[in-house]
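Example 3.2
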Amino acid sequence: MRVGESNCSGDSSYENAVALSPYVGGNSLHSNISSSTSVASSGNPAKGGSGLNLFADPNAVLAGFRRLVLGIDTSGGGTGALRGLPTWNLDMAVSKDFKYNESIGITFNAQFSNLLNHFQASNPSLNIDSPTTFGVISSQANTPRQIEFGLRIHF
């Protein structure tokens, strides 16, 4: 149990960080980010990481926050929610009816999820206690393109 926490029954506790400077991180995907320090080093492409990060300079963003100090800080409300990565997806369905006569016909269906097969990065971990993974993007938020075909015969 950490000092100042009232409920630690879950796996983790979610405290807000205290801002030391105005937030300049943004919320867009940056690629080929390699860090010369330990901050965001797990994403370093030379060491097998993805090279993707929420921040162009993770060192500067991490330096703008610190942990809450009980007895000194008057508010633990943090600076507000940081925005995650924007997301969008394009799905489509196509259906065509073929009639042979009044009582017999075929309906063809095709449904596409993520039609353009667009990569959507998931939001990273922003834990200031784990600087090696700070801002590092390591997974995909959406699924790759999926296509489903259907054929219905009605009579």
